[in-house]
Amino acid sequence: MEYRLTCINNSDMHGNFVLYQRPERSEGSAHIRSLAWQSRATAPGTRVTFCWQTSTAFIWGEHGEYGGSPRFITSQEIEADIDRDNLVDLRAGPFGAPAFSNLRATPSSDGLTIRQLNARFDYPIFHGIARDSAPLLIAPFHMNVSTTFVVDPVTYWVHFNDCRAGELLDQAQLDGSQRLEFTASRPAQTVSMGTDNIIRPVAEASWIRSRPGN
């Protein structure tokens, strides 16, 4: 399934439209952090369009300074599926390097689980979930702990700030985000940030014409 979001900047602000998800139902969500999943710079009077597939993957990597700002960089990605491949181990390989192994299915799972096995690494690593190969949610590695990520298939949030893709988001600074739901019957949506700097959904012309009384 492919989704599409068009963001219009009708304000006087320069910045980025940022798409992200919230780990509201994930097990141990206090340790799970939202990343700026997709980000596009948008000048006043212009628009950008995000397009993505719903494919999901397990990821691990490092979070550090890249290009002058702290960002998460993926080191390994393997395909995940809520019904078939929803559980994986993260362990140290023969030379002490982190690596995924033993991808398998757990019946009746409502999330994607990473088992962090007994291992110590020389540098801090993070593990998490990517959507359409872009990091979405991450958590720090803690040995002998399992983390379950409940990834919402339809709900996304859009915000306007200066974050780039891969940067950690501070939930306390995300007031004003607009919640959106994408479905097979409504795979494309539009939002606009007005002169009051508030992001609002824009009704599509085809939807307006189809309403009763129009």
Features:
single chain, 214 residues, mainly beta, 17 strands, 3% helix
Structure description:
This protein has 214 residues and is mostly beta strands. 3% of the residues lie in helices and 50% in strands. The protein contains 1 helix and 17 strands. The protein has one helix at residues 205-210; strands spanning 2-9, 15-20, 33-34, 38-42, 47-53, 56-66, 69-80, 87-92, 98-104, 112-116, 126-131, 134-140, 145-149, 155-161, 178-181, 188-193, 199-202. The strands form 4 sheets. It has a 5-stranded antiparallel beta sheet, with no helix packed on it. A 4-stranded mixed beta sheet has the order 5-1-16-17, with no helix packed on it. A hairpin with a 2-residue loop joins strand 11 (126-131) and strand 12. The longest helix is centred in the C-terminal third of the chain and has 6 residues, at 205-210. Mean pLDDT is 90; it is low at 206-214.
